[in-house]
Specification:
The structure is a single chain. By secondary structure, the protein is an alpha+beta fold. It folds into two domains: 151 residues, Jelly Rolls, CATH 2.60.120; 115 residues, Orthogonal Bundle (Arc Repressor Mutant, subunit A), CATH 1.10.10.60. The chain contains ten helices and nine strands. It has a five-stranded antiparallel β-sheet. A four-stranded antiparallel β-sheet has the order 2-7-4-5, with no helix packed on it. It is globular and about 65 Å long.
């Protein structure tokens, strides 16, 4: 006989909210003031970029299109899109703020990949929220609280959470009803396959943690679904913009971080739960992903105001880039 959850007994109606686990990574974010000679050559990178002019005007080329940014105007650049800056358009000094970001929530990531808007201009509530969150991030960069490192980091984190909430609102406002389910030129079959791979990757991490085994490889998942590993890799990257192995690394490292917050668990037991038989191998992998050894991350979590001098702060996002 199945034992009911006590909360469901005598219930008349109810709904479950979806479980949410998401990690984000903001990096290489910087404020810069440049003179009229400054330019930046054409380049691409595997992350999203936000670029906002704070003073003066800037001429940028994104995906072969030319854009003139005035003070306060924002450009949104998707991964893999070539872009460059021709510098100040007015011949005077110009200041701007640029941040790169990534997120391992595949629903939001996929939605952002479908957004073909580059210039974020107008007076909609969604764009106002993005600008407000950027103002908060920029303020925490230009005017950091040097007297209280813990407070300064929390201020930056709060502003960053506002930024990702604003991005989600922008995506929601842009989605038609019913929501657009595919990228241009992508079939529903490819979407379904990518979704199935994502679900099995998630399942493999939780199963591995429960059984002390290694998470499933893309080869295992491809065999289970009846496709070749190459086909699964292509489908996943086409829909979500990153390889499944990188996504799996992000899931594992996120789970490792959560386990390290439990002081009752030793690093050895955590390594075992994640399927590592060699704790030194786990420690090396963790340090390669986050810039800190497992015990260093645990100590940082306990005393966030203290860091080893010169040691990078742990990544907020997934596995190795």
């Amino acid at each position: 006989m199945n034992v009911l959850d006590p909360g469901t007994q005598h219930s008349v109606d109810g709904r479950m909210s979806p479980d949410i686990q998401a990690a984000f990574h903001i990096f290489a974010a910087h404020w810069r003031k440049v003179n009229r000679e400054w330019q930046y050559p054409a380049h691409t990178h595997p992350m999203f970029e936000i670029n906002i002019v704070l003073q003066g005007s800037q001429r940028m080329t994104v995906g072969g299109q030319s854009y003139l940014q005035h003070s306060g105007e924002i450009l949104f650049i998707r991964p893999g899109v070539q872009h460059s800056s021709l510098g100040s358009d007015s011949g005077e000094d110009m200041s701007y703020y640029c941040l790169h970001f990534d997120i391992d929530d595949l629903v939001l990531r996929r939605s952002l990949l479908t957004m073909d808007t580059v210039s974020l201009s107008g007076d909609t509530p969604e764009l106002a929220a993005i600008r407000s969150s950027l103002d908060a991030i920029i303020s925490s960069t230009i005017l950091p609280d040097a007297s209280d490192a813990q407070r300064g980091r929390l201020v930056a984190l709060n502003a960053s959470l506002q930024f990702f909430a604003a991005l989600s609102g922008w995506v929601l406002a842009a989605l038609p009803s019913p929501a657009r389910s595919t990228l241009p030129g992508v079939t529903e079959k490819t979407v379904a396959l990518a979704n199935a791979i994502e679900g099995l990757l998630q399942e493999s991490v939780f199963t591995a943690a429960a059984e002390g085994s290694r998470a499933g490889s893309i080869e295992d998942i491809a065999a289970r679904l009846g496709y070749s590993p190459n086909h699964c890799n292509r489908a996943f990257r086409q829909i979500y913009g990153l390889p499944p192995r990188q996504y799996l690394s992000g899931l594992i490292i996120r789970h490792a971080k959560l386990l390290l917050l439990d002081n009752s668990l030793s690093v050895e037991s955590i390594a075992y739960q994640l399927g590592y038989r060699d704790v030194s191998h786990f420690s090396k992998q963790f340090k390669r992903w986050t810039g800190l050894p497992p015990m260093g991350y645990r100590q940082l979590a306990e005393e966030p105001g203290k860091t080893n001098e010169g040691a990078p702060l742990p990544r907020l996002g997934g596995g190795p880039q």
